[in-house]
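hey team, just a heads up i'm posting the complex here instead of the shared drive bc the drive is being weird again. everything in one block, sequence lines first with there labels, then the predicted structure for the whole assembly after. its two chains so it's a bit long, scroll down
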Amino acid sequence: MEAIWLYQFRLIVIGDSTVGKSCLIRRFTEGRFAQVSDPTVGVDFFSRLVEIEPGKRIKLQIWDTAGQERFRCRSITRAYYRNSVGGLLLFDITNRRSFQNVHDWLEEARSHVQPHSIVFLLVGHKCDLEAQRQVTRQEAEKLAGAYGMRYVETSARDAINVEHAFTELTRDIFALVRSGDITIQEGWEGVKSGFVPNVVHSSEEVTKSDRRCLC
Amino acid sequence: SRVSRSQDVPPEVLRQREVKWLDMLGHWDKWIMKRFNKVRLRCQKGIPPALRGRTWLYLSGGKVKKEQNQGKFQELDHQSGDPKWVDVIEKDLHRQFPFHEMFVSRGGHGQQDLFRVLKAYTLYRPEEGYCQAQAPIAAVLLMHMPAEDAFWVLVQICEKYLPGYYSPGLEAIQLDGEILFALLRRISPVAYRHLEKHKIDPILYMTEWFMCAFSRTLPWASVLRVWDMFLCDGVKIIFRVGLVLLKCMLGTREKLKACQGQYETMELLRAIQPRYMQEAFLVREILEIPVTARELEREHHSQLKRWKKNRGELNFKSPPRMHGTRIIMLAEPPRRQDLQQNPTILV
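-- predicted structure starts here --
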């Protein structure tokens, strides 16, 4: 039986090849670190429930795609960006090039996401490899600030900030949904209500019906 | 480990098969031109493991290509590749079948050969470069043959069997996705309607299946049996495997009750039940799917027309697809000396 959730958010994870997208998602959804992971071909997806406040659960649907430019085609990018409400934009702190490409990833996202928008979080990944660092925290924070994003440094290997990154993004989106800045729309997969029909918007009401359902 | 015994064929049957295959390999062009149905039947039964590598080299036309381009691989092997490609390839070397003993050690022979083959391809076709989905294909080949042979079979797969799959933009794969979907309508109307209703673009579930020729999807014994048939008969085998999996997973209303949504459906297709992928079951089902090369071509034609109408001309022109070993042999006829065997083990 499926656990009961208030909302379902669809998130995407983007960034250059080998910055560790799949490993980060696996650490978050499966709780373990894969020493090696096959390069992603096409798209892959995962899900997990997150409790953002006691009794308030959000189901995250996380889409992973191939980082190699070759796999970016219209059909994939459209399906991928258009139907997402949030995204983690990853770079590898030990790979300067992957940081320089952050602009390109944001540009691509912006051009495909219309008429919706995506809440992005900038993630400096592999922060366990401090000795090989090529991107300072300050410059990453500056870049994130320029685009109005938060910045987090994570490590899938040492499980640093992985929960935090996903939870923070989920909370930010939840706040925007609660304030009405993001609304559920028919035919859009970004945010879905866990209740049918989609008439419950106030979180208080949802919580009540949540409890009812559990009885 | 995913690598298991290929099949439970009794040893004496296996010995008999090996004798038959050695005879075929010894008179290859005659068998292909005059008794192709028998060759096909034997590929469907499974190529004896000891002769699989050599047979794949012959089936794909890689043997002829290699003989007619002697010294080419060595020449490419000695060049240093474009750093743009070398960089990506190097990052992928330890990520192909990492639990296979051949690829387990960093910088070991398996990974070195994988690098040589993939780098050689980027020099052979600089306009194509390297696509990450080529690595598992090359790795499967290297488990069966030396680097030079694997290179030429890879060339044949990329240019004859699956042309355009690894080019930028994924046009050929998207087109085949549309073809697969159109064929599904006839093979399993229930699955077709479900995917249509939930607007699930084929590219979302078939990209890895097709680009890696199921090498990352199926259990190992099934991968080998599928490749035996694929290299003999061409891409229709790949389509048939896709159709079998879709039909088995989404083909009845009861099964669909449990997956009312786009994501739920994709989750189901990502975790295919092992019994549908089991060697004997899968091969039987593949042989029963009524999809021929001719139908594929017809569907290709109409999907291409639709594509051009909706999206304009293709950006990457690929050579025409060749449906199997017989057509390849007609297109690239062997000289007498090309089919001579150079056994590595003398009995």
